Structure formats: structure tokens, C-alpha cells
Amino acid sequence: MTVARNGTWLAQADDRTVAGRAADGDTQAFGVLVRRYAPMLRAYARRIMGASAAVDDIVQEAFVTAWQRLPELEQPEKVRGWLMRIVSRRAISELRADRGHVDLDAVPVQALAATAESPARAVERRAELAALADALGELPAAQRECWVLREVGGSSYEEIAEDLGVPVSTVRGLLARARKYIITRMEGWR
Amino acid sequence: MNDSAPASIPGFDPADLDGHTMDELIDYLDAGRTPVDPSIEGSPGCRIALDALTRLRDLGPALLDEDVQAEPPADEGWVRQIMTNIALDARAGRRIPVVVAEPDDVAMTEGAVRGLVRAAEAEVPGVLIGRCRLDGDVTTPGAPIRVEVEASVPYGEPIAALATRLRAAVGATLERHTELVVTAIDVVVHDVRLLAAETAAETGEGKEEGR
Q1: Checking CA distances to B71, which of A17, A50, B46, B93 falls within 20 to 30 Å?
Q2: How far apart are CA B101 and CA A66, in angstroms?
Q3: How far is it, in rounded angstroms, from Cα A163 to Cα A140?
Q4: What is the model's pTM?
Q5: Residue A5 has what pLDDT?
Q6: CB distance B71–A180 less than 8 Å?
């Protein structure tokens, strides 16, 4: 068996096999994980941090952390969500370092009225997603972060509270406001 | 604050929720709408809000999927930087003593033994070993050790036969290269792969994920 064929098989293997090997010290398997999930993790980090964020370094650091902690991952088949959580923690701490504190009451950059005339007939998924992306872009940072961690990353309220350094009740409040804003903002796309 | 959304949107004015709150509805949704709450399900305002929340919930993962489609594959230079960073950590694991004629504090690492076990997969083409555990006190010479390996196998061959061959290959390798007293080798097959054309080089897996 050549190394190349082995690499091809590895690239086709499931997460449990690949992450299990990487946890045992197989760097080639870890390389497969990196290539498999780097695009997704970059996209996720960008949703958390905002479109202009430099996410390459964040994701790179997250992978190095992941390598160190992989032996602790009890269920290698859950490596995708586990990697997302490492990226979100890294992204949030980067944001907090930048702004010094979580800005819970920031005002959205754009008023609702400006977007109310969205074409009501455009109900396709793509348009809906574009509207969602716009709405996310308008949310205050803390609300956007909460929503993305919860609805894109699948983090629990407790995990989000830990990452943001705020009480769970605050997370609930931020999420409620984010959901209300997004749904209201997207109302025209129904 | 963005609580100033127009109150005219049906379902979002507290008055439209028949005494329920958005928080309550979200918890109800998180619980899979069970047990059924007749008071919520019977309220038109709540139903509208639940519909909106449900659609929004589906959109989160869809948004990420769309983002990922637009992302280029990982840059190889960027991947190499990561690989360089991690290469220093050898994942040694426990220290396994080797008894020689004149005891001289010779040992191999658990990580090295795992590497040997993984290499045994070459005897059964197409089979890939996943996580490998050495169950037992490997630090004491002669202690009974149970080996457990997870495996991904190619589609189309009897799994039991592949597992038997893999077990034999792992046993032979450990016998040849270590002094471990192996009492059992358990093979857990959890993945069956369709062997695609081998033109998809090992660097070309791109964005396939979620396997």
C-alpha cells in the first residue's frame, strides 16, 4: 500500500476514524481534519466576528489547540461541533480583547424603516438567507454573537454565557432580542 | 436598543401571544413542542410566532452551508504552518518498559506502540484503523493487555473476515515488536466506505465534511 492510497482512503473515512487517529498522534490524519473543516470554520468565525474579520489566524490557532486537546475528546465522531466550539471561544476572546468588554446595549447601525420595503415576492431560500445575513449584520455585536453561537454553532445557553462572561439570563435576553429583531426584519420575505 | 421593532408585526406584540412570552415559546420549541401545550398550540398568535421561530432555526445551519460553498479550499501553505506547529508534540502516552538481558532502563512509548498497531492496517488493504486503546497496565512487564481498535472498512467485503484479518495482523505486529502480553484484540468496525476513484488525491478532499 502506498502512502498516497492510504491518504485517499483517509480523506474518505468518517470523522470518528480520522479524529481517533489524530488523537492517537497521527499527524497525517490531523491534516485531513484540517482540510476537511477549515473552510467551514473560517465561515463560522466570520459569522461570529463580522465580515471583515481576519479569520485565518483564529482558525489556525484553533487547530493547534485542537491538536493539543484531541486526546481529551471522548467521542471523536463529534469532532465537527467540538472544533466549532474551539473556534467560537477563540473568536469571542479575540473580540473581547479588541473592545475590552461586551457591549450589551449597543444601538443597531440601521433603523428598521430603511429595510421595510423589501420585495415581498422574493421568498426563495437564497433571498431569505441574504435577508438573514443583512439582519445579522445590523445586530449589535453581542446579540449577533449570541445568535450565531446558538443557531449556527449549536452552543448551549450555558456555554455562551461562559464564553461571553455574562450570566445565562443575559444570554437569554440577548437571544430574545436578536430573534425578535431578525424575525421582524425578515417579515417582508414571507 | 432594537426592542423598538414595529409593534404591528403579528405575533410579536405580547398582547398577541395570549399571555405567553417569546422566551416561553423558545423553550417550548427547544423541547420539541412536547408535551403538547394546548394553550400555546391553540393561540393563533403563538402559532405564528412558533412558525417564524422554526423557520429561523432552520436558516442558521443553511446560512453556514451557503457560506462554506463560497469558501475556497484550505490554502496549502496555511495548512503547512499548522502541521509545523503540531509536529513537536509526539503524543508519547505511557512509558512501556522493555525487559532486556541486562536491565538497562529500556522502554518504548505507548504512542510508538499505537503507531505500530496502525501500521498493521497495511496487511488488510482498504482498512483504516481509528482510535487504538491499550487497556491494562502497560508500565508493568507481563501485565495482561487488551487491545481495542476502531476500524473503517471498504464496502463490499465481509466485515467479519476483514476484522479477523486485521486482528491477526495487529497481533503479529505486537508479538514481533513488543513484549506486551496481549490477551485480546477487539476490533470495532464503525464505518464502511465506498471506495471512490483514487484520483481524488489526498490533498484534494476540499470541502467534503460531516462524514
Answers
A1: A17
A2: 42
A3: 17
A4: 0.80
A5: 72
A6: no
